[in-house]
Amino acid sequence: MKAAVIVFPGSNCDRDMAVALREAGADVSMVWHKDATLPDGVDLVAVPGGFSFGDYLRCGAIAANSPICRAIVAHAERGGYVLGVCNGFQVLTETGLLPGVLMRNAGLKFVCKSLGLRVETASSAFTEGYTYGQTVSFPVAHHDGNYFADPDTLAKLRDEYRIAFRYETNPNGSQDDIAGVLSENRRVLGLMPHPERAVDETHGGTDGMALFRSLVGALATA
Hints:
Elements: E1 2-7, H1 14-23, E2 27-32, E3 44-47, H2 67-77, E4 81-85, H3 87-95, E5 101-103, E6 111-119, E7 135-142, E8 146-148, H4 151-159, E9 163-167, E10 178-182, E11 188-191, H5 209-220
Parallel strand pairs: 1-2, 1-3, 3-4, 4-11
Antiparallel strand pairs: 5-8, 6-7, 6-9, 9-10, 10-11
């Protein structure tokens, strides 16, 4: 399985993402945001966390207009897989690949700690390594993680089982405790918590590794 990790000015989780994917068995390329095309044969595009372009204007807004994002949108429209974590989730909402927006945390403070998450669906390549209702622990590190969508969108996300993860204890005011959502075809996932920071016991836990292993396994046999 081939994966591309996108690097923007201000990315700080790109290498963590690459390590997690490689540990799960992926062949990983690092792609600079000014590139207009993705490497040949890429199955998964990973948009990592950080502070792309210093989070000016809105988090992810400038990054979403980088040349590589046009290629990411085309990849998703062809049925390719995309994973966006933290700032990457913000970028995916700005490109329109995922619904909703990420606003300032309700407490207007940066939140950085490990949190319990409830797995809300195991019916996706990203989450099939977990069981429905399972509790996992991923770190969060964000100032703009307050997920908001209009009532119709929220109802659709619930009805179509596209809420991938919910916070057990809401750290940011996100509607419906939403921590991550899936696209309509379930091939794009955005989440604020960092699974790539939960793949090594020396870093505090390995609950994130199942996400990467299930994803790599699913795409390798697709």
